[in-house]
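Reopening this one. Same input as before:
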Amino acid sequence: MKKLLPLILVLGTILLGVFSVTMGSVKIPLEYLYNLNEAPKYMQTIVYDLRLPRIVMAVLVGMMLSSSGVVVQTVFQNPLADPYIIGIAASATFGSVIAYIFNMPDFMYGVFAFIMSLVSTFMIFKLAKKGSSINVTTLLIIGIAVSSFLGSFTSFSMYLIGEDSFKITMWMMGYLGNATWEKVCLICPPLVFSLLYFYMNRNNLDALLSGDEEAYSLGIDVNKLKIKMLSVSALIVAFSVAFSGMIGFVGLIIPHTIRMITGPSNAKLIPSGALAGAIFLLACDTFGRTILSPVEIPIGVVTSFFGAPFFLYLALKSKRGDK
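Same output, byte for byte:
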């Protein structure tokens, strides 16, 4: 099962993607997918320009959020750590809103989001650090505080935007309906870079699981490694937020679930977690846009529906473990 898991996830993503193409307010007959050129023109437009970019975007963003969750949980050595819970995503949101206010090109949304998330990541890391360890309670409190503080600026910015603020509101709830092939191309480089970088450092990340002192004894510069890992995590969270909005709990649910199957080894956890994140987010987006078709449920609402109870379960489990 463990060895076949990546293959199962890839096949599952492909099958779900085919199913997702056919579903929606306009049904696409399955036979047209074999030869789309024979389909009516409007169906070709729907598939090529609307559904396929959205499906690919869901897969890529799911991989981004899940892989960042794997690394953040490893760095903080706690399953409750998540880029959204500890405030990184709220910082990225604020950066993206600033780019929107100044009417910048799409790529700059990701750049501004990255700058803001990078600053908040280091601030949270420094404040939550106690000696050589991370105080989880402090981490969560600081994350909530940062999210609330920057959220107030984001809300004020939306007030200044005026009538167009509805677009921001929809985006902040998590929305993939604006996916285009151009945006897909923009998020591919940071995703490929981050996955390769995480995988190249898989052994160092494994060493962190044994504790900072053990990692030091193996010749690893722990603080430098953590800073690098959090920086790259902030990069992919920033670009995912910039182009898909706030989609929470993916980086919490998926790494924890896959870890129970593959074990803690990052050599298996990073690729399997990324693939599982892809299929999970694609499933959530397909569910959100088809269950009440033609009305769409924002994907962030769907992931929160599954994620909030899961987070509560982990919190209660952690509490029982402390006793």
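So the earlier flakiness isn't reproducible anymore. For the record, The domain at 5-83+179-322 is CATH 1.10.3470.10 (ABC transporter involved in vitamin B12 uptake, BtuC).
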